[in-house]
Amino acid sequence: MAGKYKVYLVMGVIERDGYTLYCTVLFFDSQGRYLGKHRKVMPTALERVIWGFGDGSTIPVFETPIGKIGAAICWENKMPLLRMAMYAKGIEIYCAPTADSRDVWQASMTHIALEGGCFVLSANQFCQRKDYPPPPEYLFLGTEEDLPPDSVVCAGGSVIISPSGTVLAGPNYEGEALISADLDLGEIARAKFDFDVVGHYSRPEVLSLVVRDHPTRPVTFTSESEKGEGTQK
């Protein structure tokens, strides 16, 4: 689809690796080529019963002709150190897929745009009760009776915000929709002139961050490291 329509595509999936599931974002370029992925580093609440934890090796920011693109998933956007890692990689188009349709989510997205000096694109699902299997196969917690088929169970709220905090499109709560906006990357330079959290507005001698960006594995074989050393020789 990305190659057919010549677009950069950022999409959420449930990824299976062995016998572990991950909440993951995939990135594709406008030629339809797979660029890489981000695994959610901290599944939210009961998600931890289902999903594994991503590590520092999948916090990418991809340099593309349309800007530097990265993503954080739902409530991990509230993790200041994760955001700092992405700012340090120069993110310009910050994608924030979510399932949070509350008004306070909009405040978080505006804050990230201002804090990071980046464009924030937050996509959220709009769905109704009829989009899910019927009871008793599928039940919604906190509801004592069956919801009517047209009941809204997630109201959306997709939004695009500029580095100055201006809402360029959305938030949309009216139903399924496409939102779009023209992004002027010059706004990033103007925003960072005022506030660059990993540049002139940082104090690394007082506050700093170390990111362990290598894959974490439960088992490491010494023969693999010995092979690597042999290759280097």
From TrEMBL:
Its EC number is 3.5.5.4. It comes from the Eukaryota. It catalyses: 3-cyano-L-alanine + 2 H2O = L-aspartate + NH4(+). It is an enzyme of class 3 (hydrolase). Residues 1-185 form the CN hydrolase domain. PROSITE patterns: CN_HYDROLASE, NITRIL_CHT_2. Belongs to the carbon-nitrogen hydrolase superfamily. Nitrilase family. This is cyanoalanine nitrilase. It comes from Coffea arabica. The gene is LOC113726288.
